[in-house]
Amino acid sequence: MSSWIDGRPADALSVKDRGLAYGDGLFETIAVRSGWPSLFERHLQRLELGCQRLGMAFDREQVVDESSRFAGQLGEGVMKLILTRGDGQRGYAPPADAQPCRILQGSPTPTYPPAHAEDGVRLFACRTRLAQQPLLAGLKHLNRLEQVLARGEWQDGEHAEGLMCDTDDRVIEAVYSNLFLVREGRLLTADLSRCGVAGVMRAELLDQADKLGVVTDIRDLALSELASADEVFVCNSVYGIWPVIGHERLSWPVGPLTRKLQGIARALLDI
Amino acid sequence: MSSWIDGRPADALSVKDRGLAYGDGLFETIAVRSGWPSLFERHLQRLELGCQRLGMAFDREQVVDESSRFAGQLGEGVMKLILTRGDGQRGYAPPADAQPCRILQGSPTPTYPPAHAEDGVRLFACRTRLAQQPLLAGLKHLNRLEQVLARGEWQDGEHAEGLMCDTDDRVIEAVYSNLFLVREGRLLTADLSRCGVAGVMRAELLDQADKLGVVTDIRDLALSELASADEVFVCNSVYGIWPVIGHERLSWPVGPLTRKLQGIARALLDI
């Protein structure tokens, strides 16, 4: 598939780029429909917040311009936008005059089994725990070895996603999705101030739930709370929502709030 | 400076490489003298251990062959060897048939002020804490945002290095060095089973101390233990040893064991 670097077609990046050397950068994975990046403003907001936290320059206008043009050419699919701190000399010190590098990559819309969305999925119990680093928590940065290790734990087709806890056994997220519980009509999701990726779809669904008058609760979640959930689902900004119907010995029905929000996510993503 | 990818001169890497996408790889920074990689066997051992832990293939013969030839051409300087998991499709799952990518980069020997080695250095007190992730601890992997943040905390020339603690305020290491304390003739350094990079020079010095009959102790170090240290030094495989003479309100003399080990490190690195 096509890729651009700094606004021009290119498929190779300088070996001196700090994105490679240190994972010194951020990325967004954006669904594109009819040439239009879905949930674009939320992706941009997260990217901008990430740049602030990493002390990287963010030229919003340039990113919007290039991404919009790239999405227009892609038409349908997934656009990955990587922003690195750019080329660097040897050494960790971020250069004061660093020129961030913008990488855009297009790929076809992933073809997940339709049953994932219709009937729900089972979660693998990942043994890989998320380390607690408040300075990086929430960001979609390029340091993703924990997710690589976690996703490498299962190969079977039985599990569509994996549940990840932090090193204190709190429930945090899934490997490439955020996790929600529904209990007594309330929508619960993990506090991500110590670890985890604050997903764009997660943020959108929290807003949508507010609009529906559903009480939302962002807080620490103990693993034991899964047992008392009425509904469980995972979400991301590419597939929308998958109901979760099983995890180890636990099982849940596909519930009404899950279906309601799934419909909204589908409409937003045009899927 | 020159760079090779997979054994051939090249200065650009596929944008699909998982080293860029996820920091999915490892690196070694190796001093080269008269065309010879210093402490080469130890660098190779750490790389091999890292590959085992990340589930990456390691073709030792190929890495040795390419690195040796590259070092021969470089002559004098620093050779950075990056091993990534190679190209990948979208998604965290490590491809079963992944072909690791080998990147070699040469740069001149860094010119540190001679006073660092002679008179000693002061350490900046980094606020960035190291998260605790036993699955990745000790490895020199490509997920180095913590070091980037820590090294970005000071710009003054007064501090040559920065002291890093973990999220429980244990003393772990410096930003691009390991840290040793000497107390009552014993050599102490932090246990790195939860976080930190297990440096090649650290391993070498522990062995050398054994040979000198110096008792070595690898264990958790409380920040308060710095106050009772007789000598403190930092080390890495490029500059050898720098005595530490100050950190916040504490100060230390340049002691005899530091000088003894510094001489050994100099001889090993031919500096």
Could you list some keywords that capture this structure?
homodimer, 271 residues, alpha+beta, D-amino Acid Aminotransferase, Chain A, domain 1, D-amino Acid Aminotransferase, Chain A, domain 2, 6-stranded antiparallel β-sheet, 16 strands
Helix-strand layout with pairing:
The structure is a homodimer of 271-residue chains.
Chain A: E1 3-5, E2 8-9, E3 12-14, H1 18-22, E4 25-33, E5 36-37, H2 40-54, H3 60-74, E6 77-84, E7 101-107, H4 114-118, E8 121-125, H5 145-151, E9 159-165, E10 171-174, E11 178-183, E12 186-190, H6 200-212, E13 216-219, E14 231-236, E15 240-247, E16 250-251, H7 256-269
Parallel strand pairs in A: 8-9, 8-15, 12-13
Antiparallel strand pairs in A: 1-2, 1-7, 4-5, 4-6, 6-7, 9-10, 11-12, 11-14, 14-15, 15-16
Describe the structure.
Two copies of one chain form a homodimer. Chain A has helices spanning 18-22, 40-54, 60-74, 114-118, 145-151, 200-212, 256-269; strands at residues 3-5, 8-9, 12-14, 25-33, 36-37, 77-84, 101-107, 121-125, 159-165, 171-174, 178-183, 186-190, 216-219, 231-236, 240-247, 250-251. Chain A has 271 residues and is α+β, with helices and mostly antiparallel strands. The first copy, chain A, starts with a strand and ends with a helix. In chain A, the strands form two sheets. In chain A, strands 8, 9, 10, 11, 12, 13, 14, 15 and 16 form a nine-stranded mixed sheet that branches. Chain A has a six-stranded antiparallel sheet with strand order 2-1-7-6-4-5. Chain A contains seven helices and 16 strands. Chains A and B meet through strand 3, helix 1, strand 6, strand 7 and helix 5 of A and strand 3, helix 1, strand 6, strand 7 and helix 5 of B.
